[in-house]
Amino acid sequence: xxxxxGEAGVLPFQQEEYEKVKRGIVEQCCHNTCSLYQLExxxx
Length: 44
Fold this sequence. Notes:
Helix content: 40-55%
Mean pLDDT: 71
InterPro entries: Insulin (IPR004825), Insulin-like (IPR016179), Insulin-like_sf (IPR036438), Insulin_CS (IPR022353)
Family: Belongs to the insulin family.
Keywords: Carbohydrate metabolism, Disulfide bond, Glucose metabolism, Hormone, Secreted
Subcellular location: Secreted
Order of helices and strands: HH
Pfam families: Insulin
Oligomer: single chain
Structural class: mainly alpha
Radius of gyration: 14 Å
Low-confidence stretches: none
Number of helices: 2
Strand content: under 5%
């Protein structure tokens, strides 16, 4: 069993939530400038 999968065998996060975070970091740190602190906030 993969350590990323829960007991039901599904990933513990929803794909749409991941996409939301992914879009956020691209908009904030690629299209605009962001500080190192803001960038680190995306890294748990």
